[in-house]
Design goal:
The complex is a heterodimer of chains A (131) and B (203). Chain A has 131 residues and is mainly alpha-helical. Chain A is built from four helices and one strand. In chain B, helix 5 packs across helix 7. Chain B is globular. The chains are: A mainly alpha (131), B alpha/beta (203).
């Protein structure tokens, strides 16, 4: 997690907004008669592509990978969660909005936790870091 | 001869490059780049200069040879080159086809370069050749991730980004080792995706 407050707020709002938009998109696309696995497999890449599209405006202010990675992850997560829920039973618009927003918050929180675990010096003087 | 496909790709991106990369990305990466570049010393080869976004982070008074495959990118860099308090000799050049003699440089510095070099190990071997023995390699790069779910995401992204810009899934630390360098430090700046790499050419 970046400790500069404007980036923390920006990252959070971008993921919240994208999660909500992908949630609404999933609600509009997926019907209750869909197979749940099919809904998940279709909505995950659609969510990722939505994240990639959102990266172009968001990245100007929020950075490159710091915008692209959480937005694509959030899009994928929101597409999966809301897509599966919409395939299980008829979702109301408000439910899809809430689930999408919650997916956005969960997505950015996951990325922040992963970043706090992975960042920093991983190798000095001939260790075995890869990547 | 320069890789004309790669050159054309970056020439096309040049007019829009600063819009995407000059604000958020540079502001976020500034502290890490400045810290890495503060170690610049001696005769330095810098690649790829692009539109010169890294120039304000260079320490002053250095002797830098900077290359980029895209003439359009270097045209956009002219104002930043003029503002630098030191010497930067900027040239259009392909890393695979550098005319420098072996052992010409004390240091090689790269910034978001090896996501785009078509043959990264061959490119790094070319850098290895032009470095003096014990010469240092400093890199600021974005790479693929080793971890789920980021790894498959970066692979998926690369399918979409490769044609218009960089790859997102390069194993750059492994490539540096494969080119014959001894890696001394890897510092993850963001996840294990954005990182600084320090290495040297064994004598």
């Amino acid at each position: 997690m970046d400790h500069r407050l404007d980036y923390v707020i920006g990252d959070f709002l971008a993921s919240l907004l994208l999660g909500t938009i992908v949630g609404i998109l999933s609600w509009a696309i997926v019907s209750p008669w869909w197979n749940m696995l099919v809904a998940m497999l279709i909505m995950m890449p659609i969510g990722m592509i939505a994240g990639l599209i959102a990266f172009f405006p968001a990245g100007i202010k929020l950075g490159a990978m710091e915008a692209m990675v959480p937005l694509m992850f959030t899009g994928m997560l929101s597409g999966m969660v809301v897509g599966m829920a919409a395939a299980m039973h008829a979702l109301s618009f408000t439910d899809a909005l809430g689930l999408g927003a919650a997916s956005g918050v969960a997505g950015i929180t996951f990325v922040w936790i992963a970043n706090s675990l992975l960042r920093g010096i991983t190798m000095e003087n001939g260790g075995n870091a890869r990547g | 001869m320069a890789d004309l496909i790669t050159q054309a790709k970056w020439d096309r991106l040049a007019p829009r490059f600063d819009t995407m990369a000059s604000k958020g990305a540079e502001a976020r990466w500034q502290p890490f780049k400045q810290k890495l570049f503060s170690e610049m010393d001696g005769k330095i080869l810098f690649l790829a200069l692009g539109t010169g976004l890294d120039i304000p982070f260079f320490p002053t008074g250095k002797d830098i040879t900077a290359i980029d495959i895209s003439p359009k990118m270097l045209e956009m860099a002219q104002d930043r080159l003029a503002e630098y308090d030191g010497t930067i000799n900027a040239q259009v050049m392909d890393v695979h086809d550098m005319p420098f003699e072996a052992g010409s440089f004390d240091q090689v510095v790269t910034s978001c370069t090896f996501c785009s070099v078509p043959d990264p190990v061959a490119g790094l071997k070319a850098l290895h050749k032009v470095l003096k023995p014990e010469g240092k390699l400093f890199m600021f790069e974005h790479t693929g991730s080793r971890f789920f779910p980021f790894r498959p995401m970066m692979n998926f992204m690369t399918l979409l980004t490769r044609r218009i810009g960089p790859d997102m899934n390069r194993p750059t630390v492994n490539n540096v080792k494969a080119a014959g360098f001894h890696v001394t430090e890897v510092n993850n700046v963001y996840l294990d995706v954005v990182k600084t790499i320090k290495a040297y050419k064994p004598a």
